[in-house]
Give the backbone structure.
Amino acid sequence: MTRVATLALRADEPVDFDLVLSGDGGPYGTARAESDSAPVAAALVVTTDERGETVGSTLTDTDDGHALPHLPPDAYTLTTSAEGFQPYAGQAHVANGTATLQDAVLRSAAALTGTVGDTDRLPRERRPRHPLDQVGNVVAVHTTGSDGAYALAGLSGATYTVIASGYPPVSQPVTVAGSGNPSDLDIALTYGD
């Protein structure tokens, strides 16, 4: 850790100055799956300070461990993310010169798949899907392919409203399981009157 001090020198007198360096530490820990406690390798671990600035990052190793040493004493936010999992965030308090244990338990991300077709079940391509959370925020947007299929990943287990634009748009509620297995929702569009 770097310390900066300003010193006023006079040419005709020696100056006594003591600079106290505090030790540094940092968070360390593991990343494990909530479902079976299996290690999660190559998870990205990022540490940010109270201003939201990134002060360190690393990937978990093959044993699921991570360490971010050499941080000055302070409170930090530690976030961990990995493909197929919901992000984790937790507080890490670094004391003077000591390492701080901060394990991350990652929940499996949920997925929603299905097709969009007309009432005859013919696929409709290029129809945007807009899943909304329980308070109406758009959480993802996806456009179907030529087969009418869509897949939305990285969702949490919750109830969503899926809106398929069409003629007219169709909205359907769906509860997505948080088990890591995809939930299915097929949507049928109809012609407007």
